[in-house]
């Protein structure tokens, strides 16, 4: 599994995959310009900063959401009960956490 933040890092990962230096069964790319609150895939207008407005809108949506925290989500609870065992347990830590500072992606030029 790999999680990539930003399109620049995605390019590096794609080159590593294409060259055979890396192999992953699952890759998640997080590439919203400015982050989810700062851009969130919304149109970006030059000279106009909308992060505050987007943040306020996200906060209002979150306040009304019936499930606000992952540990309250019945699907997440079932996942732990049936597979991951317990939060912060050996299995869940091994599968859900990674030390991205230990990754070495070699970019060929």
Please give the count of helices: 5
Please, what is the average pLDDT? 76
* Strands, count: 2
**Shape by Cα distribution:** flat
Query: Are there runs of 5+ residues with pLDDT below 50, and where?
Result: none
Strand content: 5-15%
Q: Which SSEs are present, and which pair or pack?
A:
Blueprint lengths: L1 E4 L1 H13 L7 E4 L4 H4 L12 H14 L9 H11 L5 H7 L13
Parallel strand pairs: 1-2
Task: Describe the structure in your own words.
By secondary structure, the chain is mainly alpha-helical. The protein has a two-stranded parallel sheet with strand order 1-2. Strand 1, helix 1 and strand 2 form a beta-alpha-beta unit. The longest helix is centred in the middle third of the chain and has 14 residues. It is flat and about 45 Å long. 4% of the residues are buried. The model has no long low-confidence stretch (mean pLDDT 76).
